[in-house]
Structures are given as structure tokens and as C-alpha cells.
Amino acid sequence: DYQLPLAGRTVTISAGGTREPLDPVRFLGNRSSGKQGVALAVAARNAGATVRLLAAHMDVAPPAGVEVVRVETALQLREAALDAAADSHVVIMSAAVADFRPADVSDTKIKKRDDTADPVITLLRNPDILQELVEQRNAAASASGQLIVGFAAETGDSEGDVLEYAEAKLQRKGCDLLVVNHVGTDKVFGQDSNSVVILSRSGSEPQEASGTKTEVAETIITRISFELNRVSP
Ligand code: C5P
């Protein structure tokens, strides 16, 4: 009997970049385009999964055939992710989540005035959603088979440095797989191609994947299917 590899599975994927408001018209944002996350959603859908896309700001449209939840800030994404993860077999955090948010959000547009000193923005740390997802999974015995995948964009002088930082991040965050990007100035963000290394907490050899974001997504989804069917066929 032929079956798609993710048939009967629910996959939650976060994509794009969060925006942290300063006032009604301004925000702190980042360069994430959402392309890799959307490509993952397409690949998971094509593999037969029920897909929930938690879409922060994206330069691309969400694909057909997936459930879309729009979010703006890291705190909104956190709520949506913890909620969606509760009954997901797989959670992929490919969104670029702001590490900090402005402490005060003005109800009205912040005005410039000649008499005022240079303004200072105080930032608060945002919660680490990926880490909380791992804690939530570990606290729920029934969700023990859930696979949690993180992304890491690392800079470093060499490929070796990057893998070393990423390995430490994988252990610290406790996710099952970590997809590592070596980022330079004009690499990755907004581009149509990508080159990644997939690290696994179970200690298997690092797996390289490069090509278009579609090809990279297919490799990641194939790897996820393999891991999932190995744990609970
Ligand atoms: O620590 P770093 O930001 O490099 O970790 C990246 C991974 O953690 C990504 O999977 C990202 O979606 C996730 N993340 C998160 N919550 C944050 C920051 C990052 O879930 N506040």
C-alpha cells in the first residue's frame, strides 16, 4: 500500500520575521523573507502532512493547502506556537524571532521635537520559544514522540567554528534537529538558494544540503520523515 511519508501527521512551521512595535507606525524587524519556511510548508504538504503555517512578516505569499495563522510579534508567535504544538507531530521553528522587544510601546506616533535629547529605546528580552516548545513537549508524556526542529544562522571565521557554535546551541536548546546556516553579509536572506548543515541531537553525522530553498526544504522534510518513522512508525 503506497503512503506519503507524512500522511496522518500534523506539522507546525513558523516562518518569516517578527516585528516588534515602537509605536503605531514603527517597528524593529529583521531581513527574514519567509522563503525557506514557505518552502518547508510546501514540502511538508506535498509529503502528505496537515500543515499549520505560523506566518510572521513574509515577503512571499503563503502556499495553498495549508492552514495559516498570522502573527506579528514574538509574544504572539509564542502563543500561537505553544498552542499549535500541543497536537503536532512535528514543530519547525524557521521564523526569525526578535530576541528583544521595546519595553514601551507608544499608543501615538513618537514625535521628534527640537528641544528633546536623543531618544533612548529600552529593550526587553523575548522568551526563547524553541526552548519553551522543548519544555512543553518534555512535560507532556503523551507528546514524547514529537520532533522539534530549530534553525540557527551563525557567523564565524570558518566552517569549523560555525559547526562548533551550532553544536553547543543544539545541546542548549534541546531540540532534535538543528538546521544551520552559515551567514555572511549578502548570503541567505531574501535569496532563492541556501546551503545548510543538519545537526542531530542523537549524534548522527552532520548532513549537508544545498540548492534552491525548495530543494533544501525537501531534504529537511525527508530527514524529518525518516526520524519520525524511526521513533514511532
Ligand atoms: O538562539 P537563536 O536565535 O540563534 O536560535 C534560533 C532558533 O531559535 C530558531 O529556530 C528560532 O526560530 C528560534 N528562536 C525562538 N525564540 C526566540 C529566538 C529564536 O524560538 N526568542
From TrEMBL:
One of its GO terms (molecular function) is phosphopantothenoylcysteine decarboxylase activity. CTP binds at residues 99, 109, 127-130, 151, 169, 173. Transmembrane segments: none annotated. Residues 11-233 are annotated as: Phosphopantothenate--cysteine ligase. Its EC number is 4.1.1.36, 6.3.2.5. Keywords: Decarboxylase, Flavoprotein, FMN, Ligase, Lyase, Magnesium, Metal-binding, Multifunctional enzyme. Coiled coil: none annotated. It catalyses: N-[(R)-4-phosphopantothenoyl]-L-cysteine + H(+) = (R)-4'-phosphopantetheine + CO2; (R)-4'-phosphopantothenate + L-cysteine + CTP = N-[(R)-4-phosphopantothenoyl]-L-cysteine + CMP + diphosphate + H(+). In the C-terminal section; belongs to the PPC synthetase family. In the N-terminal section; belongs to the HFCD (homo-oligomeric flavin containing Cys decarboxylase) superfamily. Catalyzes two sequential steps in the biosynthesis of coenzyme A. In the first step cysteine is conjugated to 4'-phosphopantothenate to form 4-phosphopantothenoylcysteine. In the second step the latter compound is decarboxylated to form 4'-phosphopantotheine. Catalyzes two steps in the biosynthesis of coenzyme A. In the first step cysteine is conjugated to 4'-phosphopantothenate to form 4-phosphopantothenoylcysteine, in the latter compound is decarboxylated to form 4'-phosphopantotheine. This is Coenzyme A biosynthesis bifunctional protein CoaBC. The lineage of its organism: Bacteria, Bacillati, Actinomycetota, Actinomycetes, Micrococcales.
